[in-house]
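User: Some background: our group keeps a shared notebook of sequences we're curious about, and every so often someone picks one and asks for a predicted structure to add to the entry. Today it's my turn. The entry only has the sequence so far, pasted here. Could you supply the structure so I can complete it?
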Amino acid sequence: MAVKTRSFDYTIDGKTFEAFLAAPDSAPKPGILICHAWAGRSPFENEKAEALAKLGFTGVAIDLFGKGVLGQSKEENQELIKPFVENRPMLQERLKANIEMVKEQAEVDGAKIAAIGFCFGGLCALDVARSNADAAGVVSFHGLLNAPGNTADEIKPKVLALHGWDDPMATPDDVKAFGEEMTKAKADWQLHAYGGTMHAFTNPQANDPDFGTVYDADADRRSWQAMQNFLTELF
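Assistant: Of course. Here's the predicted structure to add to the notebook entry:
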């Protein structure tokens, strides 16, 4: 399938951001937001946008930090996500603004929106659902699972969490609490846990077992297939 790509600037609250969009020739198609990991939007998320386009969706790798803002170390990355992790309502408002931006793109069927995300971006995807943003469903890949404290009484978007069971950043206790949170909010939710799998299992560059980030080819493949099945059900 032929795929067209473009980068473009956009503005939220007077601040400039840069997104990357990939779409099949037959666009407009359902728009899938890709929420980036803690370093900022990178070639990893852009490649996911292109992979989604090859599946028949319009993938948009969004930007939450600002144009050109990228972390270069664990310490810098932690500082970049800190304001969002500590102020989840602010994060949720920025995500909603990004959804509205994506809906306006010519290659996107604005009535059909979903969000996926990786690591910090997985938390972002889950917060799209928790805040009942305008999306049919969300997919979290090895995302942080901690609740924001303002989860909607009844979550409307469908939820799929793809999780490494040995992820030290989302422990079995966190998984249990997440399930209870989703159940209380009457969500249509699923959680797939991959045994022997740590954090960042979709990232081929992840190879730091002491930190808890290790690539796993099987979990990468299985989780991508699970996402495809989920998006097919949505749209």
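Suggested note for the entry: Residues 3-234 form a domain with the Rossmann fold fold (CATH 3.40.50.1820). The beta strands are 3-12, 15-24, 29-35, 58-61, 108-118, 137-141, 158-164, 189-194, 207-208, 213-214.
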